[in-house]
Amino acid sequence: MTPPVEASPGFFLMLALLLYLDGGLLFWAALSAALLHELAHFAAARSFGARLRRLRLTAAGAEMQLQTPSPLPYPAEFTIAAVGPLTNLALALLLANLPVPHHDLLAGVHLSLGVFNLLPVEPLDGSRLLRLLLAALHNPQWGERSAERLSLTLAATLAALGLVMFLCGGGNPSLLVTALWLLSRNLPKRKKRPHSRF
Fold first, then answer.
1. Count of CA atoms in the C-beta half-sphere (13 A) of 40
2. Which of 38, 63, 77, 122 is labelled catalytic?
3. Are 33 and 84 in contact (CB under 8 A)?
């Protein structure tokens, strides 16, 4: 059975923003980089016996809810979360040194996506990695609380930085829009996170 696929308003907003900024090569480069990022997550999850239960497309990529026969150990979850950004960073390094047309743009898109997803802000991969690391070092409840506090703080900082840059520079609103979306995802609310989300 095909898992249900949902798309958030942020996903369509990000697509519209990319089309507005550049409907040509940048759009397709970003789309292919995001696809390879998510395929890496999916391949790693499958290698640990996980099955895809639901796929939700968001402004930051895709959130996968996984179904496993038993809870995955921390190293497996850490690997699944890390492989997406690491794939982008590896491809950025490879493309930067390949004599292909627009290699600098392609490498830059992969580098940006990889680094962005390593930020410890919910729902990015970096937040999941931090939560797993803190849970393994101390305990799951402490790791969850600490990661949530840091995530909210960084999201608010990015939103403030994006606002200052937009007002002072009068330029591109992409940082502000992205930061406000991240902040909205981190504002305190009652929610229960699924066990495995990447």
1. 22
2. 38
3. no
- Which residues have C-beta within 8 Å of that of residue 72, sequence separation ≥ 6? 48, 50, 80, 196
Closest CA relative to residue 55, chosen from 66, 46, 44, 45: 66
- 22-50 confidence digits (pLDDT tens): 556 777 788 888 889 989 998 999 999 88
Q: How many domains does the chain have?
A: 1
More confident residue, 144 or 17: 144
Please report whether residue 197 resides in a domain. no
6 tagged catalytic: no
Predicted TM-score (pTM) above 0.85: no
- pLDDT at site 138: 84
Residue 2, pLDDT > 80, answer no
Q: Is residue 31 part of a domain?
A: yes
**3-class SS at 138?**
coil
Angle at the Cα of 151 (from 163 to 29), degrees rounded to 5?
Answer: 65
195 falls within a domain: no
Handedness of CA 47, 127, 89, 182 (dihedral sign): positive
- 144 in any annotated domain: yes
Distance CA 55, CA 196 (A): 12
* Structural domain span for residue 142: 5-186
